[in-house]
Structure formats: C-alpha cells, structure tokens
Specification:
This protein has helices at residues 2-34, 38-59, 61-76, 79-106, 108-115, 123-136, 139-155, 160-179, 187-204, 207-212, 226-241, 244-256, 263-298, 302-329, 331-339, 346-377, 383-407, 409-433, 443-465, 476-500. By secondary structure, the chain is mainly α.
Amino acid sequence: MSQKLVRSTSTVAIFTLLSRIMGFLRDIILASIFGAGGLFDAFVVAFRLPNFLRRLFGEGAFAQAFVPILAEQRTTRSHEEVQDFVNHVAGTLSFIVCGVVILAEIFAPLVIMIFTPGFVHDPVRFQVTEHLFHIMFPYLLLIVLTALAGAILNTYGIFAAPAFTPILLNIALIGVALLWAPHTSQPIYVLGWGVMLGGFAQLFIQIPFLKRIQLIPRFKLGFRDVGVTRVMKRMLPALFGVSVAQIGLLIDNVFASFLPQGSISWLYYSDRLIYFPLGIIGVALATVVMPYLSRNHAEKDEKIFSATLDWALRCTLFIGLPSAVGLFVLAGPILSTLIQYGKFNSFDVVMTAKSLSAFAVGLPGFMLIKILASAFYSRQNIGTPVRVGAIAMLANIILNFILVFPLKHAGLALATSLSSLVNTTLLWMLLAKQNIFIPSKVWGKTIFQLIVSNGIMAACIDFLAGPLTPWLTWSVFTRITHLLLILCVGMLSYFVVLGLTGLRVRHFRSPC
C-alpha cells in the first residue's frame, strides 16, 4: 500500500508538472501577444468566474463531497447500485449547472458589474468582458462533468487520465493563440473559443476510462436520491470552505477593477506562477491522499489516519516552503526570464513581481489548506472548514481595505496570502484539539530543518540574483543561464543542509 500511495502521488504530480509547464508556455505566448493591458484584463475577468468554479469542482469541493460517499457505496453496494448512484449524481448536477449557466448568460452585465464594478466607467473593457463572458461561461458545464468523471476514476484508483486533462486546455489556448488569433481583427475573442475547445477535449478524453470500469454516467434526475442528497449537502458549503484562496481572488477583482489598467493582468500572471507549486504539491497530494484518508476513517483506523495526514503535511512543507522562499526572493528574475517578451515589457515585470512576492508569502498556507481540509472532508465533516473559511474570508476583506491603498495590487495579493495563513492555523489547531491529528515526535526536528535549510537557501539565491535592473536588459540566453544557475545552487544548498541536519529519504515513507 505504501508503494502504491507514493506511485499514485508521483503519477498525479508528473502530469500536473507537465500541465504547469504547458501553462508556462501558454502564459509566455499570451503575454507576448496580448501583454498586460485592458483587453487582457477583460479576458481574465471573463474567464475568472468559470475558472474559479473549475478549481472548486476540479480540485476541491466536489471531490471532497463525492469521493467518500462513492468509496463507501463501492464497498457496501453492488455495481448496479453504484451505477445508479453515479447516474443520479450526473443528471442532478448537470441540471443545476445548466440552470446556473442560463441565468449567468441572461444576467451577464449584472454579474460583471458585481465582480468588477470599476469596469462600469470603462465602456470598452466592459463590452469586451461581456462578450467573452457569453462565449466562455458554458465551459462551466463541461468542467463539472470532467470533474465528475475524474472523481469516479480517482476512487477506482485511476489517477493518470484525470491528471492529464488540464494539459488539454493549455494546448487548446496555445493552438488558437498561435494559429487563429493572428488571422482575425479581434484576437482577444479567439481565447474564449479556445477555452471552450479545451473543455470538450478534457471531458471526452476520460470517457474510454469510464467505459473500462463500466461507469459511464447515464443522466437521471435524482433530487430525492439519498446518495445525491448527501453529496449536495456536503458539496454546497464545501464550495466556500475548501477554496478561500480562490474566493479571495474574486474579491481581489472587485478592488483591482478600480486600480489602473493592467492590475488584473499583473495579479493573473503572479497567480499563475504561484499555482505551479500549488498544483504539483498541494493538489496532487490532496487528490491522492483523500481516498486513503476516507478508507482509514471508514475502517476506524484513527492511528493510520493521523499518520497519513502527518506524512502529507510534512511532505507539503519540505517541498512547498522552499518553493515559496524561491518565488519570494526571485520574483523579478523569474518573471523577466519567463514572460518579458513582445508586449509584456519591463514595467509589467516590475509590477507583477510585487504581487508574486506577496502571493509567495501565502503559498505554504494555500498548500496546507488542501491537505487539512481533506482531513475534515474525508470524515464527512463539512461544517468545520466552512466556519474557518468564513473567518479567513472576513480577514481577507478587512486586509484588502487596509493594504490596497499603500500597496495597490500587491496589497490585494498580500491580503489573500495572510488570510490563507489564518485559515491554515485554525484548521491545524482544530484537528489537533479534536485528536484527529496527533503530530508525530519528529515535528520539532522538522521545523528546525526547515528553518535552517530555507534560511541558507534564501541567502544563497539572493546573493547570486543581485538587483533586478540588469535582468531587465539582459539577453534571453543570459537570463535563462543565470536563472538556471541560481536555481541549481539554491536546490543544492537546500538539500545539502537538509542532509547535514539528519534528513534521509526513508523519513518520507508513507504509513499506508
């Protein structure tokens, strides 16, 4: 079981890594073609609502509500009964989402005014945003069905296909940006159709795998179905509780819409970079650990439950914390190397670096929330993360008001980061207080190792990077070689110090 858990995590992480690499390539191309101006602001806003729900359904709330119940039914019911449960979930969920899509299409101007009120005073940006919104919002239905298929496959131990699906969205956007956009007078609208194309591809690629396990959904309404009712009751509050960071980005939109043009784009590019390690570590671990935690709880094996959670948290910190330190210290050089091309100029690099450093402060929190929330949801406890999320959300709003005036868009990013740390701290404390999570005896040494290794790594890479100004004028080759050298030295110093402080590979063996 231990090898299977590590192998499954590695599979998800590898495909997620490929997706993030493709995402980098996508953002380089989009930045070069569209820059960080008002039109790209409009695309970001129009895509943020369905994309926000994609992150909830695809990597959080739906899986947290659906997987434990499906795992339970798989164990206690016949295949025909499981098929009937899947049919009713698919039909009911699709019916609800179709209603949401129709209402959103009808009231699109109102939705845009609510989430980006500052655009009301900019008719061009508002009109472009509305048109893109009409094109892209039906993507929500496609991605909900994709998430359903992925959750079913994950429960049956098939992780590769669902982990591969995000790559298809990146391929679609890259394809339309390079092949279609240059041949149209309004290239920004092409991105909207690229999103829809990617949505269809993400859904259809999973159908053969569903057929293999004989669980292709046959859509049936089932509002009175007991299983559907349980999923819905757990899913609705989890939409809020598990993804405070993403809700924070929507709140950031409201504030950013009043800031100068480009602010939303700067936040977008920095968020994309933060999501690279978050997707690889936080989402991959949570996706794989969730079924094991659910099984541990169903078998009433609380000792293994706590040990599995302990393992996941330590893995997250050992990889997530140096990622945060690296992004904080090297924000400018990384952005200059990756996306300072075409219409994305040196000023955009400087401004995006400010929000990237601010987001990096909260990266460990963003990652840990994925794992900590999974511990509650695997026990079918929705209320606790929701209450904690409400507190963190209130903190985010208050911090937005405090920080947006002196720090502008970077203040919005910092507010989101600080609220995620509030969320993490409260979830951790409650798990420990309820004796759900009993930290192992190695945590004292773990904290010491993390502080020393990350401190030395930060000093090394900061010294080698130097000031940002020369990076903005160097050739592409010079930037790439310097950044690779710094990253290699940083990783080497980090792992050497970890080894000197006593960390060994055997310490990462999973307990299940």
